[in-house]
Amino acid sequence: LKQPGSTESLHMEVEEMEDEGPPPIEELQLDCLESPAPVENVFVDKKAVDKLTEGLLSHYLPDLQNSKRALQELTQNQVILLDTLDQEVTKFRDCNALLDLNSLFTEAKVYHNKLVNVRKEMIMLHEKTTKLK
């Protein structure tokens, strides 16, 4: 007789399940890092794997989706902030350009006054030379 928990009875149960037609059974090897015990072959039912996967996903997926939404919102806010900063930088550049333009007009006014003074001097010198002749 075979004991109910033995490896042989487990293999027979697996073979019986394969004959019945449920989903195929996958063979997994578990590595034990803590002890130098030999590696065992473990048979896992695909339904169990699917249910465990579904449970794991249902546990972590909502938090991950919330995090994803929060990150998307943060990214959108960063894009808006970058656009706003770009507009502000453009405004400051325009202000600096206006200051440069103002100084250019001030300088042009000074040179215009110098030209007017030179013209007056030229007229005055012309009048003096005509009197001398």
Structure commentary:
It is a single chain. The chain is mainly alpha-helical. It has two helices and two strands; from the N terminus they run H-E-E-H. Strands 1-2 form a two-stranded antiparallel ribbon. It is rod-shaped and about 130 Å long. The protein starts with 6 loop residues before the first helix and ends with a helix.
Give the arrangement of secondary structure elements.
Blueprint: H1 7-20, E1 25-30, E2 40-45, H2 46-132
Antiparallel strand pairs: 1-2
Considering the chains and any ligands shown, give keywords for the structure.
rod-shaped, disordered N terminus, 133 residues, two-stranded antiparallel ribbon, mainly alpha, 9% strand
* Radius of gyration of CA atoms, rounded to a whole number: 45 Å
DSSP summary: helix tally: 2
Order of helices and strands: HEEH
The shape is rod-shaped
| Relative helix content | over 70%
* Uncertain runs: 1-7, 9-14, 17-33
Total E-strand runs? 2
Strand order of the largest sheet: 1-2
Short description:
The chain has 133 residues and is mainly alpha-helical. The protein contains two helices and two strands.
